[in-house]
Amino acid sequence: VYVGAIFFGVFARAHFGELGDPEQALPLAVSQFLPSVLGGFVIAAIVAAICSTADSQLIVVSSTLSRDVFGWDKRHHGKEGQAQFERLDRITLVILGILSVVLALTKDRTIFEFVLYNWGVMGAAFGPVVILGLLWPRATRRGALAGMIVGTVVAIGWKEITALSSVLYELVPAFFTAMLAIVVVSLLDPEGKKQ
User: Fold this and answer.
1) Rg of the chain taking only CA atoms, in angstroms
2) Burial class (CB in 10 A: 0-12, 13-18, 19+), 108
3) In whole angstroms, what is the distance from residue 161 CA to residue 68 CA?
């Protein structure tokens, strides 16, 4: 996939020269080199791939928030809590969808910048939790939650402050501050002291 994208980018640059908006290279190539019907199918396939990825991402994040952050667990709440969980999951999904649309419409960024931003925030939120969860036995649930919150906040804050984001990619400081938060909270957590 990456090799094909790179070759297409090189081709588009060589054929079209400098475009005002580089993200218009694919629609421009489709309209110039393919018949209208086939071009419509190509664009529809791309939109379908984007939609199927976006809805899956929203569902995963919504479920993660509902189960891990808000603490819903079938073992503790039983079947009677299932309706409450589904309601919480749907509300979270709607809020995330609205935030995604607002972010996409208000920020003047390329798709590549959105992808980098997404990986920076996700890497800062989940990377330290996975690493310390696997390698450090004293890591606790509260420590993991603190790390996820700190990593997310630092990554978003770092990216939004231009003086900081122009110097260093937001994942680096957010990753290490999240790791520090996990260690500090886990050491202070009575649950961690029992281990």
Assistant:
1) 21
2) exposed
3) 29
Tell me which range, 21-25, 91-95, 109-113, 130-134, is most confidently predicted by mean pLDDT.
130-134
CA distance 121 to 119: 6
Nearest to 143 by CA among 195, 194, 178: 178
- DSSP assignment of 18-56 equals S-SSGGGHHHHHHHHHS-HHHHHHHHHHHHHHHHHHHHH
Enter the tokens of residue 132: 């310390």
pLDDT tens, position by position, 34-85: 999 999 999 999 889 888 888 888 888 877 777 776 666 655 666 666 777 7
Asked if residues 96 and 60 have their Cβ atoms less than 8 Å apart, the reply is no
Q: CA 53 from chain center: how many Å?
A: 12
* Entry pTM: 0.60
- Contact assessment for residue 151 and residue 128, using Cβ atoms and an 8 Å cutoff: yes
Domain residue ranges of the chain, discontinuous segments joined by +? 108-195
